[in-house]
Amino acid sequence: MATPAAKPVLTASLVGAVILLAACTDSQPGADTSADLVLRGGTVATVDAENSMAEALAIADGWIVAVGSNDEVDAYVGPETEVIELDGRFAAPGFIEGHGHYMSLGNSKTILDLNGAANWDAIVKMVAEAVANAEPGQWIRGRGWHQEKWDRPPDPVVEGNPTHASLSVVSPDNPVLLGHASGHAGFANAAALAAGGYDRDSEPPPGGELVRDENGELTGLLRETAQRPVSAAFARSQSGRTAEEVDAQFRREVALAAEEALSKGVTSFQDAGTSFSTIDRLKQLEDEGALPVRLYIMVRGQSNEQMDARLADYYMPSEGDDYLTVRSIKRQIDGALGSHGAWLLEPYDDKPESTGLVLETVEDITGTAHVAIKHGYQVNTHAIGDRANREVLDIYQAVFDSAGGADDLRWRIEHAQHVHPDDIPRFAELGVFASMQGVHATSDGPWIPARLGDDRAENRTYLWRAFMDAGVPINNGTDVPVEDISPLANFRSSVTRQTADGSIFYPEQNMTRTEALRSYTINNAIAAFEEAYKGSIEVGKLGDVVVLDRDILTVPDAELADVRVDVTIVGGEVRYAR
Question: Do the domain assignments include residue 33?
């Protein structure tokens, strides 16, 4: 693994010049100038600086070598060229997932999927069916429940959530841990609580909450860090697996995540938090050519001392046709709005005794920022509440000042969901990216006013237009598996802000179609220092392309929900076809 000094950075124009020079050399009499893959006869959104449109493109050796009219690109069709007739379909740069959890996505495909559960009773039934097929003592896990999306409240109910009684009845001999859709809370049955060492007199770890009923008994709801002892108990239950079993599970989850991503048109994935040990495993797969999706990794779960000692060994900025890039760090200052964990300037409307939770201290994150400056790493900090965003901006500003400036550091705030208007200009002044998730607004919209009140919901929450008008770059994503990885669902949310019930969540903050497409392609590339290689369809860039069945820049809003991914191409290879 190279050090930062050994990694030259090529500009897009230089890469293009190299490719064009090679093309001129190859075009000598008798030379073969044919491409490996040509797409023609459609609408090609290049997402270049002028948002140019074309009809066709050609890819050779994994790189784009021509973009233009059908006649121009036909010159690159040779006897061995694979030709995809677009027949009027829409081609765009491969979508870049700007913030997700790659291994969690793969793992979510191996446990109970609770996203579609209509209510708590349906979840209990799912668990009962899983128990019927499990051995005594075997853990049952699931993810995706969200109490605000159920068709009726549970009975009994505490703070809008169920108690574990009915769950424990159907699983007396199996520990059960069910993750909230946000990832910021979990629900445990009696056996799982006991495995985690929790009883009536237990206190949560710092940054967590144990929810209790009116009699002081644990309900089973674990907010934020309170999940960790139970998760640790599950991890201990897996300690007897062989190295071969661990490796097989890892590879299976990598493959499942890639399959899901490629089916949705995602060619690159920015992973919001991975340990050194997992990076080692991913590096092995990259060396084997076994990573189907390009990964941009944020280092997570390591102490400042560990990072200071080891970051130099893991520095892997993009060099072009890479499938594993490591040059950033993920921290998390607060929780989520859905679990009352976001750190607010004023208390929650529906929980007035709380302003949220601080998960990682200002002092510790400040230490990380100094380590990052020292080693040339980007810092991407999770901040959802308005207090959390202000504190992170303060940290960044202080560290930038101590370093003598912030020349093209591209540090990010992940989510930036609830921000005081006074702080938006600070993003622009500091050069901080707002790494947001369009689909969160439409997913959360129906219940946000209950959490924050109408005024804060309107003037501080999901302020895409306010950010863009202030000159703040927005890179888009889904936070998968919190939401479905679909860029098309996210695109629709970004341009319509229409919630499931048909209402519009403050449409004055909408993106335009072009802005939304750029937020999912070139903006994400820029936010990862990769704009020289990806994010647009231009000569000299990687042949990462998605083909859709219709033009998302022009179809009526009502048709956006029906758009489908037809083909996903990575490095000139078709990796998915519908």
Answer: yes
